[in-house]
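[step 3/7] fold_predict: job queued, chain A
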Amino acid sequence: MDKQTIVANLRRDLHNVMEMRNQVTHSPLAGARLALREFQSARLAATHADLLAQPQTAAAARFFLDDLYGINDFTRRDADLERVVPMMERVLPAVALKYIAEAIELDCQSEAFDCAMAALLGARFGLEDYARAYLRVKTRAEREAQIGHIESVGRSLCELVHMPLMAASMKAMALPAKLARLSELHHFLEAGFSAFRQMKNPEEFVTTIVQRERTILENLYAGKAQPFCY
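[step 4/7] structure written:
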């Protein structure tokens, strides 16, 4: 995919996710959305507890849980990103742009799913309520596509860490980013890159996460009593 297409997709998804976040933040759904995100963040941390506990994979697992999905406020990061898209198109390689675009696409899709589920669940719910809402709000194909986006982000990061001189470029960007008030965006870029660079086999890490999430999807659609066991 060429840079122009990647950037067009990035702009579209960034606009959509910023709109959704702004609307839900100023709506009665805000509390329900936060409760759902807290539930899912705790679930992800439990599912991948072994990856969080291992020194080799801890940083990458934390990046997936906190920076790709979590209860953190991404408003500043999104505003930073919107401001510098033209500059990034000029200076970043296509693979780095693809990583950012795919991460924002995943964020956009997750936000849409969460808003739909929050509208059904409210702020107080249990596992059975969650399982019913999970099946009602989106099709199986859409759920599978969401996991596919998780895999795409991971594979893009794997590709990025193998690029020559990328580590030096990330380090060199730190001070200019701080001076330009782009610290949140630089953290997002650098955190994923550094975490994946620490691992001997980042591809195996991505495969592990994706396989577990696909098993959980299968469990939910099969109506298993303990769907989060893989």
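[step 5/7] annotate
Residues 15 and 37 are 21 Å apart (CA to CA).
The mean pLDDT is 86.
exit 0
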